[in-house]
Structure formats: structure tokens, C-alpha cells
Amino acid sequence: MTDFIDAFRRAVGLIVTLDPSLVEILILSIKVSLSAVAIASMLGFAIGGALAVYRFPGRGALSAILSALMGLPPVVAGLMVYLLFSNVGPFGVLQLLYTPTAMIIAQVVLVTPIIGALTRQACQDLLEEYDEQLRSLGASSSAIVVTLLWDGRYRLITAVLAGFGRAIAEVGAVMIVGGNIDHVTRTMTTAITLETSKGNIALALALGIVLLALAFAVNAALIGVQRLASRFAYA
Amino acid sequence: MLDPTSSLKALDGHLASPPLPIELKGLVYAAGIKRVIDGIDLTIDSRRITVIMGPNGAGKSVLLRLMHGLILPTKGEIRWAGRCTDRLMTRRQAMVFQRPVLLRRSVAANVSHALALRGLERGSRAIRVEEALKLAGLERHASTPARVLSGGEQQRLCLARALSLEPDVLFLDEPTSSLDPASTLAIERLLLDAQRRGIKVILVTHDVGQARRLAHDVIFLHQGRVVEHQEAKSFFAEPRSEGARAFLSGGLVL
Description:
The complex is a heterodimer.
Chain A: H1 2-16, H2 20-53, H3 59-69, H4 74-85, H5 100-136, H6 141-151, H7 153-169, H8 172-178, H9 188-198, H10 201-231
Helix pairs in contact in A: 1-10, 2-5, 2-6, 2-7, 3-5, 4-5, 4-8, 5-6, 5-7, 5-8, 7-10, 9-10
Chain B: E1 22-31, E2 34-44, E3 50-53, H1 60-68, E4 75-80, E5 83-84, H2 87-90, E6 93-96, H3 107-117, H4 122-135, H5 151-164, E7 169-173, H6 181-196, E8 200-204, H7 208-214, E9 217-222, E10 225-231, H8 232-237, H9 242-248
Parallel strand pairs in B: 3-8, 3-9, 6-7, 7-8
Antiparallel strand pairs in B: 1-2, 1-4, 4-5, 9-10
Helix pairs in contact in B: 3-4, 3-5, 4-5, 5-6
């Protein structure tokens, strides 16, 4: 028990003194996840908005697949990207495996269905209310998509935050395609895994505390966005 | 005070020119096996307010949507001064729905959005938005989120938005059914004003008093058919059909 308390004390010390190795890992994690979420948002908004508005054969099936992929296990997303970018894979020539870029791609695969499915749901709910009015105003399908995305902006923000929460906390995808290389592809989650197995509880714990704090911050932001939306009757 | 018979007067030199007559030929709309609209032949040629009345489920709202092109008829056709309902014709029309549909944006942005959909440049939108809000008495609320307005204000905004498009034909589906008398009066004034500017107004209402105040001619629908269509004066003085008589006397039309 004293070992544990000692580890905890050293963990807090690492955070308070902004230990360089901890900060390096933290910055890479956030950089990778933010980039992935930015790309996944663009893709998710477009896919979700289009699925809500356009009518085409296979639309229902596509929506169902997108929703199902929300629960895609990170290791599977990692494996898929690994196979694509490994030396024998179709994109092997790009030599992207074990780089932050590969990690971003894996997290895009993981997060796009989450943002896409939540966007589709938000747009579909709005469309039920707006459809006749917008068609009466003479809106084209693409104009309807743009209108729905903007009017669903608060729900889209919550979708993005949910996606970020998922990306920053996952370990499977970045571990497989990144390889947890020190100073190159080591993120908070992969570092926690490694340091724990090495017995370096202090660093693992420090990273765990930072990760938890991030999760709380994302959640607080979610609640804030929802409050703001209901204040303007925009929810 | 405006009255339904005051003469047409151009506003800022703009007088709407509705494509008249509106001809409905053998119009049928079936939902499943039920014929919601069951063979309507009708000609509307007055430039004044036409009111569509009838009990619930008579097909009033569906008829309005068919005319506006929101839904397509199962059979039959609609002609506007001899032309079919096409995209160009729909762009000369606007509609106000029973429940106000407002975007999750400011009051001004709601009008501006509609104008943008009609392809107006950003610069020319601002003036039209200002005019529309003034017309609806909402200029002080320009930057208010539209959905926190009262029910009456919301419907006034919907009407102002529709009028800002400078339509030739304006459809309204029971626009005042959930509004108080003051809000209803405000809407009716706007409608009479629209009529004076030459806009062909076609209004569905349950409110007999409102029909008396506004209508030039009345179409009485029952079970998807036109039971009668005549000038308001004679319709209210001596309705020809049993159904209309019962409806006007406050009886229940089944």
C-alpha cells in the first residue's frame, strides 16, 4: 500500500513539474487524436448529412452498417489499417506503418462511423420537421444537407466530442499501427500499458490521471454545449 | 382598415401577377386504398382570397400540398394559366404551414436563409430582410433566436418570410388555428395587405368567422370532393349543400 501511495505522490510530482517525457507523450496523443477527429468530422458530416437527405438504393443498409460500426473494436480498426499499410498491403509503398500518420488513419477509421451515425440521426430528426418547409422554399438536396448540418450544429458538436473521447482513450488501434515507439508513436494509452507491465507505476498513474482529467473535461464541455443549446431553444 | 374588397395597389411599383386561372382537372390523390382527394375539377380565377373549408379529413391540407407541388397527384393535373406545375411555377409560390417551422437561427437569419435559397445575393438580402421584419412588426427581434418567440410571433415570422419571397401565389394551411385573437388579427391584416399587392391567397381554415372576414370565394370540401364552390357572400347567405349548411350552423358534419 505504501508503494502505491508513493507511486501516486511521484505521479502528481510528474504532472506538477510538467515532466518532459510525460508532456511529450501527452502532446503526441492530443495531436494524433485531434487530427483524426478533424478529418473524421469532415467525413462524418458529409456521410451523415447525405444519408439523411438523399434517397438511393441501399441507403437503409448503409445507415445500419454505419451505426453498427460505432461499436467497431479499436484493435480491429488497427488490424484493418495495418493490413492496408503493411509492406505486403496495397498501400505498403507509402511506408506509413509505425508513424503518427498511420495512427491518425486508424483513429479516423474508428471515429468516422461514430460522428457519421450521430450526424445522420441529428439530420434525420431535423428533416422530419423541416422537410416540407424547405422543399416549399425550393431548396435543392445539397442545400437541405447544408441547412440541416448548420441547424444541428449543437448536436454535431456533441458528436465530435464523443468521437474525441473515443479516440483519446483507445489503445488497440494506435498500438497495432503505431507500435508504441518511444519519442515517435508513444501515446498516453500505449505508455500506460507498457509502464504498467514494466512496473513503472508512477508514470502510468500520472498518465492515467491526465487521461481521466481529459475525459472529465470532454464531458463538462458536452454538458455546457447542451445547456447553451437549450437556452436558445436550438436543441 | 383593410377590407377584402379594397382595390389592388402596387407597393413600391411591385404588383404580383398570379398565373390565373388555376385549373384542377380530375385530380385524385390516393394514400394506400383511400382516396384522400377523390376526383376534383375546379377553376379558380379570382385574384382575391380563396378560402378552402371543410371538416377534418376532407382533404384540405392535401389539396393545398398538391397545388404547391409538395406531393404529386395519383391522377389528374393542375394548370396555372394553362401551364403545368413545374419548378419555375413552384418558385412563384410560397406556403405557410399550420405549425410554424422555423430554423434554429435568429429571426433575421430565418428570412435571409429563405432568400438565399431563391438565389438572392447577400447584399440585396439585407434590405428584404429588414422590410419583412418591419412588415411583421418583428424588427426589434431581428437577432433573437427564432424559436424563443411566442406562437403568434413565430407564425407572423413564417408569413413575413413567405412574403419576402415576393410570391405570386401564397398558400396557408390553417395558419391561425392555435393563435389568440390579437395574433390572428395581425395575420389577417397581413393577408389582406398581401392580397392588395396582387398576391393570390389560398387559405385553408376551420374558422368560419375568419372565412367571413377574408374570403372572396369559398371552396367547401367533403370526403375529398368539392361539394360547392361559390362567392363568399352567397355561400354564407345560402349554402347549397347539406354539408356546408351543417358546417356553418355549427352542426357536426360527419
